Amino acid sequence: MAHPSQLGFQDAASPVMEELLHFHDHALMIVFLISTLVLYIIVAMISTKLTNKYILDSQEIEIIWTILPAIILILIALPSLRILYLMDEINDPHLTIKAMGHQWYWSYEYTDYEDLGFDSYMLPTQDLTTGQFRLLEADHRMVVPIESPIRVLISAEDVLHSWTVPSLGVKMDAVPRRLNQVAFISSRPGVFYGQCSEICGANHSFMPIVVEAVPLEHFENWSSLMLEDA
């Protein structure tokens, strides 16, 4: 959950998000080193009146400042490609959920069950209880078991939407008449919040996503209760 004045990302709740955080820190450190070097060179050039004639025409220096950026780009590209393939990897999901975007709410269908589905609307401010978050709480949460591969099939009924949960490292566009898929594994129990990340109309800001990760035993009890109510 993000908090006011937060500068970094939310705490990771999935292995992919942990990898993304590590890559962010890796790339940011390279940016800091490059910025420091450039700043030092600028200050040195401004503050000194001396000129080194060997720097003015030096093939060795030209070779270094040609090869060094290429090495830096490789150091950034290889981890990036690795994470990109990890995010697309979907191996034997234990549970498949279909998320459908509407104006302006989400509907979820647990396709491994015969009749388990519901609509998820934002809770109005006047209905919130202590500890719930304005504009982020939904009347029905998408409940998933922890430490299990989850596949989410994402589409939309009307206009473009985007199913996004930052803590899980998940963001996928919901496109009408097209089925996209994304996978994640929740590494710890908790409630993780997201919002539609594609401008989809007047109430775009009012269709939150709430994912609740629980132990497998609790998930089975929840699914049994939902099927009984259905």
Automatic annotation (TrEMBL):
It is a multi-pass membrane protein. Its main location: mitochondrion. Keywords: Copper, Electron transport, Magnesium, Membrane, Metal-binding, Mitochondrion, Mitochondrion inner membrane, Respiratory chain, Translocase, Transmembrane, Transmembrane helix, Transport. The keyword Lyase does not apply. Residues 92-225 form the Cytochrome oxidase subunit II copper A binding domain. It is found in: Mitochondrion inner membrane. Pfam families: COX2 (PF00116), COX2_TM (PF02790). GO terms for molecular function: copper ion binding; cytochrome-c oxidase activity; oxidoreductase activity. It comes from the Eukaryota. GO terms for cellular component: mitochondrial inner membrane. Binds a copper A center. SUPFAM superfamilies: Cupredoxins, Cytochrome c oxidase subunit II-like, transmembrane region. The chain crosses the membrane at residues 27-51, 63-85. Residues 1-91 form the Cytochrome oxidase subunit II transmembrane region profile domain. Component of the cytochrome c oxidase, the last enzyme in the mitochondrial electron transport chain which drives oxidative phosphorylation. The respiratory chain contains 3 multisubunit complexes succinate dehydrogenase (complex II, CII), ubiquinol-cytochrome c oxidoreductase (cytochrome b-c1 complex, complex III, CIII) and cytochrome c oxidase (complex IV, CIV), that cooperate to transfer electrons derived from NADH and succinate to molecular oxygen, creating an electrochemical gradient over the inner membrane that drives transmembrane transport and the ATP synthase. Belongs to the cytochrome c oxidase subunit 2 family. This is Cytochrome c oxidase subunit 2. It comes from Psenes pellucidus.
